[in-house]
Amino acid sequence: MLPFQERVELTQLNTFGFYSIAERYIKIESVDLLQQLVDHQHHSTDPLLVLGGGSNLILDDEVPGIVAHMRLRGKQLLKVAQDEVLLKVSAGEAWHETVEYAVNQGFYGLENLALIPGTVGAAPIQNIGAYGVELQDRVVSVEVLDIHSNSLHHLTKDQCQFGYRDSLFKSLDPGRYIILSVTFALTRNPTPQLDYLALKEQCEMLAQGVTITPKHVFEAVCAIRQAKLPDPNHLGNVGSFFKNPYVDPSTYAQLMESYPNLVGFVEADKYKLAAGWLIEACGFKGYRSKSVGVYDKQALVLVNYGQGNRAQIEALAGQIYRSVLERFGVALEVEPRYYPALILSE
Ligand code: EPU
Question: What domains lie within the chain, and their CATH numbers?
Answer without folding.
Answer: 5-70 (3.30.43.10), 75-187 (3.30.465.10), 197-228 (no CATH), 236-339 (3.90.78.10)
